[in-house]
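Entry 12.
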Amino acid sequence: MQGKKHYQDRFFSTVNLAAMIPKNHVQVRLDRALDLSFIYELTKGLYCADNGRPSIDPVLFFRMQLVGYLFGVRSNRQLCEAVHLNIAYRWFCRMNPEEEVPAHNIIIHSTQ
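Predicted 3D structure (tokens):
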């Protein structure tokens, strides 16, 4: 008998991204060894405390740059799309599935 799956989109869903990524995945191993909490203090003086709109989280920015560097993503547009689509990238960047990825024109490589 031929089976047929009937897909129905759910309005609400509970997803544990960490459970979906293998424990030996390169990003899991890197995350275990990486403590980026120092970035907040390091970049604190680069932002105005009481003027302008909030920036993206500097740790999120750095994690996205690492994804781009490690996996050969060459453009900001491709990087944002890759983080949007790839569960492991989202997990590494500490982004929930329903969270919006920063716009490609906000993510600026330091070499530009």
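Annotation: The chain has a mean pLDDT of 88. Helices lie at 17-20, 26-33, 38-43, 58-70, 76-85, 87-92.
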